Amino acid sequence: MGAAAGADAPMPTVDLLVAGLGPGGCAAALAARAEGLSTLAVDARGAQATRSQLVLVRPGAQAALRQLGLPDITEGRRTTTIRHVENRLRAALQGQAPAPPTQPPPPAAAFELCWNTSVVQLETRGDRVQVTLQDEAGGATRQVQARHVIDAAGGRLESLGRPARKRAGPSHLVVTAEYDTPPWFEGIVGVRDNRSRDLYLLFPTWGRRGVIAYFDSPPGASCDQGSAAALAERFAAIAENLALGPPQQTALAIDVYQRALLKPNEDRVVPIGDAIGTVDVLLGAGMSTAIEDGVDAARRIAAAQRHTSSQRELAQTCALSADLFSRHRAGVHKGRLMLAVRPVLARAWPSAALPAVARDSVGPPPLLWPAVRFVFGRRPQAQ
Question: Which CATH class is domain 13-164+262-335?
Answer without folding.
Answer: alpha beta
